[in-house]
Design brief:
single chain; mainly alpha; ABC transporter involved in vitamin B12 uptake, BtuC; globular
């Protein structure tokens, strides 16, 4: 019943802003089609296609475009709820160290692989996404354990950043002793890529993101209460500890899942929530959550289209930074 009520209120808020949402939906469809068509060779998906073109569309470009939608929406929503939890306009999906944990998992797999292979280490057969998932989950579990011991969101923010710093330091130690081939593999992963996700990977990625989205939906009403502070939220009868748990779990699943399969993607999760709030002139999470998801998906599709225009494809994180960094600079200047 609680989920049904949330969904009913959710739909009612969407109807009040139906025109803007419809325009965003049209933009999403247009850039999805453009992303599927564009690349080193332009392929028009309608009409007679050669077997090679059909294989390129189905095996490479369609999953890449779908991944751009999922990754852009997930990172944007994760960034939005982090900004609400910490009441910090520069908080993002990687604030709690999830990205650093994923990087540590990948670094251990790639850089310790040569050493561990001599003792037949059983986990060497796993792929980079699984290693990144394990690293992200470990950091998330540490953050969750700490969240039960501290009452202040500021303390949780600091602890999350410290866990991220520790993981980053361990990665630096591993890089110092790594061989050039392993170091190159790790650096390529850190640049971010949407093309590494195929349909088989989607079967693992999609359930993770759906579970994270469920936690966001469960926290929609409490998130609106947190906009005015924890004390005000408690006065409204909101269970702040449980809400914080839902937010941390949602962020870990959304940001951790995307990072594990696509690598770190910069700035999308920080910049998009501000664009959503500005476009809809609202901080109501029943509006800003779907708005952030749509805008994030559109923005990452645009970034992916721009990446494909270069002779040598640019890393998605580099292009997304060109969009996100100016937005963050504008936020800082606006808030003085």
């Amino acid at each position: 019943m609680h989920i049904c009520k949330i969904f009913t209120n959710f739909v009612a808020d969407l109807k009040r802003n139906s025109i803007i949402f419809a325009l965003l939906g049209i933009i999403l469809v247009l850039f999805f089609a453009l992303d599927v068509c564009s690349g080193s060779v332009w392929i028009w998906p309608f009409g007679d296609l050669s077997p090679m073109d059909r294989n390129i569309l189905h095996a490479i470009r369609l999953p890449k475009a779908v991944t751009a939608i999922l990754a852009g929406a997930s990172l944007s929503v994760a960034g939005l709820i982090m900004q609400t939890l910490f009441r910090n306009p520069l908080a993002g999906p990687y604030t709690l160290g999830v990205s650093s944990g994923a990087s540590l998992g990948v670094a251990m797999l790639t850089m310790l692989g040569g050493v561990l292979s001599t003792i037949h280490f059983p986990l060497l057969s796993i792929g980079l996404p699984v290693a990144a998932c394990i690293g992200a989950i470990l950091v998330l579990l540490l953050v969750l354990a700490v969240s039960r011991r501290v009452t202040s969101n500021v303390s949780l923010l600091i602890v999350g950043m410290m866990f991220g710093s520790i993981a980053g330091a361990l990665v630096s130690v591993l890089q110092n002793f790594a061989n050039p081939d392993a170091l190159k593999l790790f650096i390529v992963w850190t640049l971010g890529s949407l093309s590494s996700v195929g349909w088989s990977d989607m079967q693992m990625l999609l359930p993770i993101l759906l579970l994270g989205t469920l936690f966001v939906l469960l926290a929609l009403k409490p998130l609106n209460g947190l906009l005015l502070g924890e004390d005000y939220a408690r006065g409204l009868g909101i269970n702040v500890s449980r809400t914080r748990l839902f937010i941390v779990l949602a962020t870990g699943l959304l940001a951790g899942g995307v990072t594990a399969f696509c690598g770190p993607i910069a700035f999308i999760g920080v910049a998009v929530p501000h664009i959503a709030r500005g476009l809809f002139s609202s901080s109501n999470h029943r509006i800003t959550v779907p708005a952030s998801a749509l805008i994030g998906a559109c923005l990452l599709l645009v970034c992916d289209v721009l990446c494909s225009l270069f002779t040598y494809p640019m890393p998605i994180s580099t292009v997304s930074a060109l969009f996100g960094a100016p937005v963050i600079i504008w936020i800082i200047l606006k808030n003085k």
